[in-house]
Design brief:
This protein is mainly beta. It has two domains: about 30 residues, no CATH class; about 90 residues, Sandwich (Immunoglobulin-like). The protein contains two helices and seven strands; from the N terminus they run ααβββββββ. A four-stranded antiparallel beta sheet has the order 1-2-7-6, with no helix packed on it. It has a three-stranded antiparallel beta sheet with strand order 3-4-5, with no helix packed on it. Strand 6 and strand 7 form a beta hairpin. The radius of gyration is 27 Å and the shape is elongated.
Length: about 160
């Protein structure tokens, strides 16, 4: 595996610390990352996205969705039910994993969660990118230096 040192980038730039940190994070491989639970990331429109996470076996009360520090954090913890003895169950095959998990998704600038719903064992989180008006591109007209633009008052023409 190749590793890259981004330390020189930190020394020669001002205000790009976040970009360098993102590149650092992208190049770092976390060996503890697993594929549980499976998920999809879909683009549903020009500025609309959806993250779908398989959450079979969890109720809505056992799921948690938070936005913090530019991240969407989806977590689940199985609630303990009083009087239910799980040691009495002998599984011949256990393919439905209902174990605690936490998934983190790093969101781009100006992306926020719009809503969430569960349907058929899938959690759908709707995201939208809302760029502020001040950051949207705008066209600047170029004035010709040799001509001056004068305001002309329109004369009212009356027919006799």
């Amino acid at each position: 595996m190749r590793t890259y040192d981004f330390a020189p980038l930190y020394r020669s730039t001002v205000g790009f610390d976040r970009l360098a940190s993102m590149m650092d994070r992208a190049m770092t491989v976390d060996v503890n990352t697993n594929g549980y639970p499976p998920y999809n990331i879909e683009k549903t429109g020009e500025n609309d996205y959806q993250i779908s996470v398989a959450v079979a076996g969890f109720s809505d009360d056992e799921l948690s969705i938070e936005m913090r520090d530019g991240q969407l954090v989806i977590s689940a913890k199985k609630a303990e039910v009083e009087g239910e003895a799980t040691d009495d169950v002998t599984y011949l095959h256990r393919g439905i994993a209902a174990r605690t998990f936490e998934k983190r998704f790093h969101l781009a600038d100006h992306v926020r969660a719009k809503g969430a719903k569960t349907e058929n064992g899938i959690l759908h989180v709707e995201l939208v990118r809302e760029v502020p008006e001040a950051l949207k591109p705008r066209r600047i007209e170029i004035a010709d230096g040799s001509k001056t633009i004068e305001a002309k008052v329109a004369k009212k023409v009356t027919k006799a």
